[in-house]
Write a structure and sequence with these properties.
Blueprint (H helix, E strand, L loop, with lengths): L1 E5 L5 E6 L10 H13 L39 E3 L5 E4 L26 H14 L3 H8 L7 E3 L9 H11 L2 H9 L2 E2 L3 H6 L3 E2 L5 E4 L5 H4 L7 E4 L5 H4 L9 E4 H11 L3
Parallel strand pairs: 1-5, 5-10, 8-9, 8-10
Antiparallel strand pairs: 1-2, 3-4, 6-7
């Protein structure tokens, strides 16, 4: 598969052969499964304190001949607090009692991660890459028609100012994606804000894929909804956030060459 390599000014420079997995079959089911697996790896195990609600003097004594027995006294035969002189106080320990234990608390032993086979994940990654190269799939996600894939010269990795990156996107006719992300920005309030750890949410826009650490990793990240990732750390969730394929991706020529070296050209 041959694609056009564009300059920063949007002019065609040369033709370039991309690896064959850029034209793989799009498997939305595999992509969704891979994304769920990635997100499940971030779940943090949680559970209450093992002895919560059980650290009390409460005890149930059912034998009527024993000291502190609860039989034949007209009270609930449940674990009660021990009081002086053989008396008993309030019910404790059981789930429906005040300060009692939880009935079915979450457990740290529970397996939260959804595993996926390596070959299956690799196939999902190839499928997500292929989806980002099909105009109809990209349009289904973004709502706009683009001449994908966008492969730019390696000089793109040296752009160190956000205004220059934005100017480049305007030249390519892709600045609309950034504007959509800005317009979608919504404030997060209440408890949700503390849980999510951020004050705003916005839609994903452009993804820049580079060969290694470079100035673009900082300048490109300042644009609304954009992401910059090195090709060796590229994930399915980067290419298809939320499991929906067709994100607008801008590749550097060197990143595609390195991708072919990592996975082979088959």
């Amino acid at each position: 598969m041959k694609v056009n390599v564009l300059s920063i000014d949007g002019k065609e420079v040369e033709k370039f052969d991309v690896p064959s997995f850029f034209s793989n079959e799009v498997r939305k089911d595999l992509i969704l499964r891979a994304v769920r697996s990635e997100l499940s790896m971030k779940f943090q195990p949680k559970a209450p304190y093992k002895w919560a609600g059980l650290q009390t003097s409460a005890e149930y004594i059912g034998n009527k001949d024993k000291y502190r027995t609860m039989k034949n006294r007209g009270g609930a035969m449940l674990p009660h607090e021990k009081l002086p002189k053989g008396r008993y106080g309030r019910v404790r320990m059981i789930p429906f009692a005040v300060t009692g234990r939880r009935a079915h608390p979450p457990k740290v032993e529970k397996i939260l991660a959804e595993k996926i086979n390596k070959k299956e994940y690799q196939k999902a990654l190839f499928s997500a890459i292929s989806a980002s190269c099909i105009p109809d799939v990209v349009k289904e996600r973004t709502g706009a028609q683009y001449k994908v894939p966008y492969v730019l010269v390696d000089e793109i990795e040296k752009v160190n100012k956000s205004k220059d990156v934005l100017k480049m996107l305007e030249t390519l006719g892709l600045n609309e994606e950034i504007q959509k992300s800005i317009n979608s920005r919504k404030r997060i309030t209440g408890v949700k804000k503390t849980r999510m750890g951020r004050a705003y949410k916005e839609r994903k826009s452009v993804l820049f894929v580079v060969s290694n650490d470079c100035p673009l990793m900082k300048s490109g990240l300042n644009l609304s909804g954009s992401s910059v990732v090195t090709v060796d750390k590229l994930t399915v969730n980067d290419l298809a956030p939320g499991g929906l394929p067709g994100r607008l991706v801008i590749w550097s020529k060197n990143s595609i060459q390195r991708l072919g070296e990592i996975y082979g050209n088959n």
